[in-house]
Design goal:
214 residues; 4-stranded antiparallel sheet; 35% strand
Length: 214
């Protein structure tokens, strides 16, 4: 470095206190090894600020849909009657204790078999029958009948989903896109809704452990 440049550098240091303003090289440690100055923005290690992907949120299956509890089923809009698979083999609403009024929704893949039992102690050891969609023809609506339980039978595969705005015991029941609802003319029927909202929702009321051997 020339004498003129050295004098200029000394003056600059005195006025500004700037170190390294004269193009000085890297400093050395006690061993004489060059050391680098503080990292610049180009040297900084990038920080990954993206959020870690969260895993799927698991939703616990309600106990009444576990296949281990028996329930009574009451239409929310009904005041007194409950569902019964009558001795004539048709799902209906009734105000007495006739027919099979205890049900066990049993997981069957992504759907449920809905097994029906007699109450009053008659359900224990009794072979259940299952809900099955029946098309009576003659332009009449679909209804639910009782049949021997067959998990592979599509007409016995029902979907049970939480009703929007309902409590933890309130559900919609459907099969193949047709929803269970009440009809003033035909009683309980299954009907495709198109763009309409379901008209009937159902409360599944826990009545204890399911019958053994069902």
């Amino acid at each position: 470095m020339s004498m003129r440049r050295w004098v200029a550098c000394v003056g600059l240091v005195v006025m500004t206190g700037a170190v390294g303003a004269c193009g000085a090289g890297p400093t050395t440690d006690a061993s004489g090894t060059p050391t680098s100055g503080p990292p610049t923005s180009a040297d900084a290690v990038p920080t990954d600020t993206s959020a870690s992907p969260s895993g799927p949120t698991s939703t616990a299956t309600p106990a009444v849909l576990s296949g281990e509890r028996q329930v009574t089923i009451v239409r929310v809009q009904s005041f007194e009657s409950g569902l019964s698979l009558t001795d004539e083999g048709r799902l209906a609403e009734t105000v007495d204790d006739s027919g099979r009024q205890l049900f066990v929704p049993t997981p069957n893949g992504e759907t449920y078999l809905i097994k029906a039992y007699y109450g009053g102690g008659r359900g224990s050891g009794t072979k259940p029958v299952c809900w099955q969609v029946l098309n009576p023809g003659n332009s009449r609506p679909l209804v639910v009948e009782g049949a021997d339980c067959k998990p592979d039978e599509p007409r016995q595969q029902f979907t049970v989903t939480a009703a929007e705005g309902g409590d933890a015991e309130t559900f919609l029941i459907s099969s193949g896109g047709a929803y269970l609802r009440t009809s003033a003319q035909h009683g309980l029927i299954l009907e495709e809704l198109g763009h309409a909202q379901p008209e009937s929702s159902f409360r599944l009321v826990d009545n204890g452990p399911a019958p053994a051997g069902g």
